[in-house]
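Note to self: the last two entries modelled the partners one at a time, which told us nothing about the interface. This time every component goes in together.
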Amino acid sequence: MATLSLRRLRKTFGPVEVIPGVDLDVGDREFVVLVGPSGCGKSTILRMISGLEESSGGDILIDGAVVNQREPKDRDIAMVFQDYALYPHMTVAENMAFALRYRGVARAEIRSRVAHAAEVLDITALLARTPRQLSGGQRQRVAMGRAIVRDPKIFLFDEPLSNLDAKLRVQMRTEIRKLRTRVPTTTVYVTHDQVEAMTLADRIVILNRGRVEQIGTPEEVYETPATIFVAAFIGAPPMNLLRARLEGARVVLDDGTALPAPAHRHANRAVWLGVRPEDLVWRPPGTPAIGPLLHGTALTVEPLGAETLVLLEVAGQEISARLPPRSVRRAGEAVALAVDPARLHLFDHETGSRI
Amino acid sequence: MRARGMWPRHAALLVVCAIMLVPFYWVVKTSLTGENIYAYPPRLLPQAPHLFNYVDVWYLIPFPRYLLNSVIVSLLAVGGNIVLNALAAYALTRAFPGRRWVVLLLLSCMLIPFQATIIPAYLITARLGLLNSWLGLALPMLSTIVCIFVFKAAFEAVPRSLIDAARMDGLGDLRILARVLLPLCKPAIATNVILSFIWSWNNFMWPLIVTRDPLMQTLPLGLARFLSYVEDTTGALYAFVVMVLVPGLAVFLMAQKEFMRGLTAGATKG
Ligand SMILES: Nc1ncnc2c1ncn2[C@@H]1O[C@H](COP(=O)(O)OP(=O)(O)O)[C@@H](O)[C@H]1O
Ligand SMILES: [Mg+2]
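The predicted structure of the combined assembly is written out below.
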């Protein structure tokens, strides 16, 4: 049972302001993912929560109590590190028991907790080995086991899967999901991988240069990105952003193509028109036009089996589209795409925020 | 193919080793015979080897007592070096105001020869009332700047996240040092043991100054004293030398595996 709150949390390294001020509330047992490009300050925020790094301003509250001045060990937080940080000179069991030995937990209790965590993570057979004798995925499990045995108020994960190869990463992602239901604990999870964020999070916090761009459920940040940064960050391939003008209830592209605007409050201003590659619908040549179409020329065609990724030129700009298999065959073909006006996103040209 | 390509190199190495070992062999041989080392033609094998020289050394001077003094002083020095250097090095790996200046100060102090500080060192030891005592003999050798930096480099090679993990696990600084850093820096410990042992074991100048009582003297002083006792020195002298060398060799052989790793650390890592 724990809640975590950040209030105007700041961090400067010398003259460099890395985190200008973050506000965040994590509910009890909530799984919040901080996501953003590398160098945006995710680890710094996590380290301030853990107490490893001192904050330069603002407050950190656990269960409503300010913990700014508390040592890491007095915050009751466990952390899983990117490089696992297992003690190489100890066995897996000793690694997992290490923290408990210094917290005055009775021996029998330690043994049963380690055994239980090992069972949950399916590493019982590895308990006598040293970290050197483990594969990357196994080390990752041990690192999580070390956090679980502590039974802390809060889990922190700092890019725990980024050292694994792609296949193992997917597998471990599923494991973490399973773990969430078996060991429900308030969690802050850091990653630069938006897929990881989308699949794991209750809520996602998207960071850009130390600032929060948007906080919301995976659905919210996908469906209604608050800024073009979020729009371009979430989704693969990312959302297409086209220079356009909002003219009354229409959005007009550079080449004169007009589409009905999803929201038509502001007339006559420069905007970014956002449309996801998966919201573009292929119109086979010769089908009658229903509603407005985007016309373009295929630049590259990547048949992936279940779908075909096409990069096209539309109104002098490049956009990508996820089309059905066997739709567009080769580069140079003319392509007509329909789009549901409700799936269009508009962003202010200057500020980049959603209109 | 490869083995054949290697043998000239191995042969060359063997020759070099042999050349390096000749003086030592000569010392051992002479200690067993007492023959003139300048005898011509030189004999390769000892003739009628005996251990009388060793017996002489043991009884002519209080050799056991000197040995005890040397062992105790060297143990103090080794212990002091490990504990104090590790603590100092750990402090130097942490950020604190003026750390750069402390490092600079330490580095520049390395340039000062011991002879230049010997008088203040003597006065301080006297003021502490430690003249003529084991602790006094070990005092200036309890910490060595070079060895602090050996530890510092080793600690810095330990991934930062391990120390973070230890802090999250609830360890204080001393326990991080004792339970995480030192177990992972055995080569640095071995380097500290060997260097501080050798320096203390071979030290002549300092013991000469701070000991008054002949019974507090260490082996190098005993050697000097011994020379003034014995007339036909050759055999006994060489026996003495062997007896002084052997403990040092023993320490080295025990620690050498880690020592080598310490000296070549980083050389082979990807
Ligand atoms: N100890 C430090 N001293 C100076 N700058 C730092 C330090 N730690 C991190 N930074 C800077 O802070 C920014 C954020 O770093 P970090 O939180 O590690 O990013 P992320 O985890 O999102 O990749 C980076 O620009 C990095 O260079
Ligand atoms: Mg990071």
